[in-house]
Every structure is written in C-alpha cells, then in structure tokens.
Amino acid sequence: MRQLLIGDKCGAHTVPYIEVKNNSSRVEHEATTSKVDEDQLFYCRQRGMDEEEAVALVVNGFCKDVLQALPMEFAMEAQQLVAISLEGSVG
Amino acid sequence: MLEIKNLHVKLEEEEKQILKGVDLTVEAGKVHAIMGPNGSGKSTLSYVLSGRDGYEVTEGSATLDGADLLEMEPEERAAAGLFLAFQYPVEIPGVGNMTFLRTAVNAQRKARGEEELSAADFLKLVREKAKSLKIDADMLKRPVNVGFSGGEKKRNEILQMAMLEPKMCILDETDSGLDVDAMKLVAEGVNALRDEGRGFLVITHYQRLLDHIKPDVVHIMADGRIVKTGGPELALEVENNGYTDILAEVN
Q1: Is B92 in Cβ contact with A58 (below 8 Å)?
Q2: Which pTM does this prediction carry?
C-alpha cells in the first residue's frame, strides 16, 4: 500500500485488514506515505520543466501501475485529470 | 561564458558557511576541471549554480553570458543553457526514460520560444545519440534511472546532455562509480560535445577522468575557495602527491 500526499490539506489513513483461515501461515502488511520527492522535482526542473509540469510527470509516474490497469479510454482521461487537479496544488 | 565572482554561500538551515569567496570564469570552448578533497565545496558549487533549494548566497554573483543565474528559477537556468550532470542521478518510477527526455527537450524549446520537436524528429535524434553512448532501446523504455547500474545512470546523464545541447555543462563527479570501460564511454560522449561555443566545468576527485577528458585549466578547491589554478599538469601533481603538498604550499 502506497500513498502520495499532495498539498498541505490532505492526509492518508490506512487500515490493515487481513483475513486468514489457515493457522500455519505468517502474514504481514506494509504501507508507506510520502510527499512528492524534492530531489525528483529538482531533477526535472534542472532539465527544463517548470514546477507544475514536474509534479504532473512524477505523480503520473507514481499512479502508472493503477492507470495502466484501466481500459485505454479511461487511462487517457485519468491521466489528464491528474494533471488538471494538480494545477496550483504544489507546495 | 560562466562568470562567478566572490561567491559566498551558507546552508539555509544552519550557520554553516560552505563557499567562502569563489572566483571562477569558464570561457566558451574551454574545459575547466575542479579538483579538491572531500567537503571542499565542489558539489555545493554545482548545486548553487543550478538552483537547488537549501543554500543561501550571502555575497557575490554568478552569471551565464551576462544573465544573473542566481535570480532565475532552476528551469530558467536550464533553458538559458546550464546543464548539471548529477553525481547521483535521481530515479523516477513509472516515468519512461524517453517520455522524460521528450518532456525536457520540449519544455526548454518552449521556454526559448522555439517550436516543439515532432515525435518522429525526436525519435530519430534520440536513437542516433543513444547509439553512440551504447544505450539500447530497452534502456530508453525503462523508467528514468530505476534499476540502472552505476554506468547506465551516468551514460543516461550524458544522453540527456547530448539531447538538450546546453551551452554550459557542469559534470559533478561523473566518474564516481564507473569502471574503466564505462568511464571511456562517458568521456567519449563528453568529448563529442566539445565545441567552441560550449563550456565545461568538470568536478572530479581523480586525475583518471582527465586522462580522457583533457582539461584546458585545472583548479584546486579547498575549504570553500579556489586555492590554486594551473594547466593539466596540476592534475598530475595531485595524482602523484595528493592534496597535502599543494595545501601546505598555499597555506
């Protein structure tokens, strides 16, 4: 489970829930929450992208596994939605 | 081309002065090398010039072709022609190497008021440049630097440099983590970009990189200043005797 926080008015709550019907198994759960990485943003900006473009690129990369699983037409739209909803949310 | 005058820099978060008056001019067409012991401020200089957060310039100036670098955002410096080959290239999961390159190239073209490269022209250009750096199609498709070996990461930096065609290239310890063959490949990539309109600042610990990328001028940096400047023979002196003699002589 991975979460990405964007902007200063958000949070993430993860509730682990694992149902096991086998008394000999060992199970684990894991979750990470991160902000958009400063080093990644600086790397993109050093190559010429402005801050919004850099955030959109990094966030879309983060979401790629999920977006990729969507049917083609939804995936395209979802990608654009991510870019639009990020406008002005950097900081 | 690149003109640094009396540059003083401290860390933003704490009272620690890193650069204590750096003076350095890199002319177009020249390769300048900066050598120096750990903690002398070499990497800080490259970060301050490229605009990374966390540093405060307390005195001095840095200009590129007369334009004040320190007033610009990082992406404006890039579009003005400043390129930094990172010591530790950053991984960006989920973003294809090719997508990253194309976004960067077109962002810079847009900032300079030029037309974006078409997909076909871009593809042709990237294949041609990648070939000479022995970067295969698979590496272009993989996410930026994710799972790349040390040599692949550094070759990828040089590919970005070749695609962006900057005026002023700063290479921050590009030789670190490279074996001899990878270093030769990287040096060939850099040498192919040498021309009279382009300046290079090569930061390195070791003389061996300078065997392959022949510098015009060598500077020794220690404790936040350039303490000695000379020709390529200065790098050999460091290789043979270490920094101790030079630093003793300066002090």
Answers
A1: yes
A2: 0.89
